[in-house]
Amino acid sequence: MIDIGLTKLALIGVVALVVIGPEKLPTVARMAGSLFGRAQRYINEVKSEVSREIELEELRKMQKDVREAASDIEQSFASTVADTKQSLHAAWDDGSAGVADNFRVEQLAQTLKAKSFRKKKLARTSAIPAWYKQQSGQKARVLSGAARVAKYRPAGQSKASGSFFS
C-alpha cells in the first residue's frame, strides 16, 4: 500500500487545517476515515472473492482428476473381471466332460457299495436266530446312556430326592 510516515501525516494535517479550517476539519476527517474504511473492506472482499475462485478452480481440476482415475480403475476392473470370466468358462468347457464321467463312475460305485451293505446287513440280522445271538453274546439291542447308568448303579445309591436345589 501507500507508505505514509509520521512526518507526512503531520504535513497533511497542517495543510488540511489551513485549507479547510478548524470548524469543518472534524467532519471532513470523519468522512475521510469512513471512506478509507469502506475502501479497505471493498479491497478485502475482492481479495477473498479472488482467492475463493482460485480454490474453486483447483477443486474442479482435482475433481476432474479423481473422476478420470475412477474411470480408469473401473475400466481395468471390468477388463480383469471379463478376462477371469473368460478363463473360467474356457477351463469349465475343457474339463467338464472328464468331470461328468468321473461323477458317473463315483455314483455307480456308491450305488454298488450301498447294495452290498444292505445284503450284508440282511444276512447279519436275519440269517442268525435271536436265541443264538443271546447265547454267543452278540448284542440284540443297544442301551442308551441313561439306561446303562440306571442298570449298573450300585444298590446303595438312590436317585436324587426330586428337588433340583437340595
From TrEMBL:
GO molecular function, one term: protein transmembrane transporter activity
GO CC terms: TAT protein transport complex
Record membrane topology: Single-pass membrane protein
First-listed, main subcellular location of the protein, grouped into a coarse class: membrane
Location(s) in or outside the cell: Cell membrane; Membrane
Keywords annotated in UniProt: Cell inner membrane, Cell membrane, Membrane, Protein transport, Translocation, Transmembrane, Transmembrane helix, Transport
Gene3D superfamilies per UniProt: 1.20.5.3310
Swiss-Prot/TrEMBL GO biological process terms: protein transport by the Tat complex
Record PANTHER family: SEC-INDEPENDENT PROTEIN TRANSLOCASE PROTEIN TATA, CHLOROPLASTIC
HAMAP family in the cross-refs: TatB
Family, similarity comment: Belongs to the TatB family.
Function: Part of the twin-arginine translocation (Tat) system that transports large folded proteins containing a characteristic twin-arginine motif in their signal peptide across membranes. Together with TatC, TatB is part of a receptor directly interacting with Tat signal peptides. TatB may form an oligomeric binding site that transiently accommodates folded Tat precursor proteins before their translocation.
Oligomer status and interactors: The Tat system comprises two distinct complexes: a TatABC complex, containing multiple copies of TatA, TatB and TatC subunits, and a separate TatA complex, containing only TatA subunits. Substrates initially bind to the TatABC complex, which probably triggers association of the separate TatA complex to form the active translocon.
NCBIfam families: tatB (TIGR01410)
UniProt-recorded name of the protein: Sec-independent protein translocase protein TatB
Native species: Collimonas fungivorans
Gene (UniProt): tatB
